[in-house]
């Protein structure tokens, strides 16, 4: 499945370079939203998308912006779920499987505070849970958004830029 998804993203992006932004948006949303983050191999797909950007000699900005915005929207929905339902959310059927990740993220927040948002963005299993726990912890929306924007922007660049720049230099 991962291989098929990667092939589809690469083929679609190469055939339709103007789809880089929406592809990046959907992939990043899926990787960031708690309900989809365990199903969609977003990190692999975004790295592959970065490679397509490099091979096709496209600008990095649309892919970066799509990744940033998609992850922000996914994170906002997850934050809202945590803020609205608090700890009751672990009793919902869909979220029972995340109970251990929620506990690890709570420990991350106790130890690192708001830095946990930046740290958690780069930890695959916790990426989709961090916004939920931020909401559960009643972190203000604007504080969460400010810190999360920095984290998501760095994350987007780290995933897309290496493949894009390396392949841009290798492929004539």
Provide a quick synopsis of the model.
The chain has 172 residues and is mostly helical. 75% of the residues lie in helices and 0% in strands. The chain has one domain.
Fold and architecture overview:
The chain is mostly helical. It has one domain (2-170). The protein has helices spanning 2-15, 20-32, 42-55, 60-85, 99-112, 115-121, 124-127, 130-136, 141-170. Helix 2 packs antiparallel against helix 3 (42-55). It is elongated, with a radius of gyration of 16 Å.
Head-to-tail CA distance between termini: 31 Å
Per DSSP, the total helix count is: 9
- Overall shape: it is elongated
What helical percentage do the residues reach?
A: over 70%
Rg over C-alpha atoms, rounded to the nearest angstrom: 16 Å
Number of domains: 1
Q: Approximately what portion of the residues adopt beta-strand conformation?
A: under 5%
Count of extended strands: 0
Enumerate the spans where pLDDT stays under 50 for 5 or more consecutive residues: none
Q: Could you state the order of secondary-structure elements as H and E?
A: HHHHHHHHH
Structural class: mainly alpha
What is the typical, i.e. mean, pLDDT?
87
The profile of the biggest β sheet is: none
How is the secondary structure organized here?
Blueprint: H1 2-15, H2 20-32, H3 42-55, H4 60-85, H5 99-112, H6 115-121, H7 124-127, H8 130-136, H9 141-170
């Amino acid at each position: 499945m991962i291989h098929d998804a990667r092939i589809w993203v690469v083929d679609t992006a190469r055939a339709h370079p103007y789809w880089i932004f929406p592809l990046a948006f959907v992939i990043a949303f899926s990787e960031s939203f708690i309900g989809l983050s365990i199903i969609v191999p977003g990190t692999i797909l975004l790295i592959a998308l970065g490679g397509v950007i490099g091979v096709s000699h496209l600008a990095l900005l649309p892919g970066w912006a799509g990744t940033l915005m998609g992850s922000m929207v996914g994170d906002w929905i997850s934050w809202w779920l945590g803020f609205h339902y608090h700890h009751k959310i672990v009793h919902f059927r869909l979220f029972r499987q995340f109970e251990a990740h929620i506990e690890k993220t709570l420990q991350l927040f106790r130890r690192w505070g708001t830095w946990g948002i930046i740290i958690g963005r780069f930890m695959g299993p916790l990426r989709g849970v961090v916004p939920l726990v931020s909401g559960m912890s009643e972190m203000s929306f604007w504080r969460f958004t400010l810190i999360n924007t920095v984290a998501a922007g760095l994350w987007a660049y780290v995933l897309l830029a290496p493949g894009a720049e390396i392949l841009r230099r290798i492929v004539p």
